[in-house]
Amino acid sequence: MIGVVLTSCIYDNYSPPSVQFSGRIVYQGEPVNVKSSSGHDVNNANVYFYLYEPGWQKSNMPIRVVVNQDGSFSSLLFSADYKMVIPAGVGPYITSTDTTEISISSNKTMDINVTPYYMVRNPGYTMSGGLVTAAFSIEKIITGAQAQDIQAVYLYINRLLITDDSNNIAFTELDGSSITDMNNMIMQVRMPDLSTLGLGISTDQKTIFARIGIQINNVNNMLYSPVQEITIN
Predict the structure, then answer these.
(1) What SS3 state is found at 38?
(2) Residue 116's closest CA among 137, 89, 95?
(3) For residue 176, is it left (φ>0), alpha (ψ between -120 and 50) or beta?
(4) By percentage, how much of the chain surpasses pLDDT 90?
(5) For a designed S-S bond to 224, which of 3, 33, 178, 206 qualifies (C-beta 3.0 to 4.6 A apart)?
(6) By the 8 A CB rule, do 203 and 194 touch?
(7) Segment (H or E) for 12
(8) Residues 73 and 204 sit within 8 Å (Cβ to Cβ)
(9) For the segment 21-40, what is each residue's pLDDT rounded down to a tens digit?
(10) Phi, psi of 128 (to 5 degrees)
(11) Helix and strand tally (H, E) in the chain?
């Protein structure tokens, strides 16, 4: 009984994790934007990767590091050597699924390089008469045997910074088969009457947020553009 009590005390007296590991998921230095995991349990995050701490008694139970909508991530850890694994099929990109060893003894910032299937280029938004217009281009990054076609492109608007297929007040969709020129994309969506939406939405709100989303064939996670704020006029 004494041995059990001592062991319990040892584990109970561990200091909490205090070292911050942060960075971005990037392609050629540019963040790859994804769907937000804000408000979700970490175990149900949309885009993530794993960290394993070899030698710990539960090293077979990974730490799941969540990727935010702007491609950034941050996790509080213990000072230790870790093995990082990016699961295949998670994220709108391909990357090595080999294990990467990471030594963390103090706060560490590191970008993780991936290759997205597509990237949204030069998105710009205007609003006139309650109609939001998006002008942008789409660059196809992955070609050859690993390439995937676009299933659909979306323009989302929302009253909050978190904007995606689950968080929006209006959207419009363009089927991938209807795209004629990826270098000259124009999409429009009408802003709804905020007073009809309920949920305590202020009718005198001065700005909204807009974002492009791309659904890719055979890829679980959508690719997004950065969120941009638009003045309501």
Answers:
(1) coil
(2) 95
(3) alpha
(4) 70
(5) 33
(6) yes
(7) helix 2-12
(8) no
(9) 999 999 999 999 999 986 44
(10) -150, 125
(11) 1, 19
Token pair listed for 226:
């950065």
| Number of residues that this document lists for the chain | 233
Q: Give the integer Cα–Cα distance in Å for 128 and 190.
A: 10
The residue among 139, 104, 134, 101 whose CA lies nearest residue 118 is 139
| Rounded CA separation 80/55 (Å) | 10
Half-sphere exposure of 31 (CA within 13 A, CB side): 17
DSSP 8-state secondary structure symbol assigned to residue 55: T
**CA–CA separation, 63 and 154 (whole Å):** 32
The number of beta carbons lying within 10 Å of the beta carbon of residue 85 is 16
In angstroms, the Cα distances linking 127 to 147, 152, 159 are: 34, 23, 14
Residue 178's alpha-carbon distances to 94, 150, 220, in angstroms, are 26, 10, 21
Question: Each residue of 49-91: pLDDT tens digit?
Answer: 999 987 655 556 789 999 999 999 999 999 999 999 998 889 9
Tokens representing residue 126 in the block: 């205007």
Instruction: Round to whole Å and give the CA distance between 78 and 12.
Output: 15
29's torsion region: left (phi>0), alpha (psi -120 to 50) or beta? left
Phi-psi region of 71 (alpha: psi -120 to 50; beta: other; left: phi over 0): left
Alpha-carbon span 228 to 55, nearest angstrom = 44
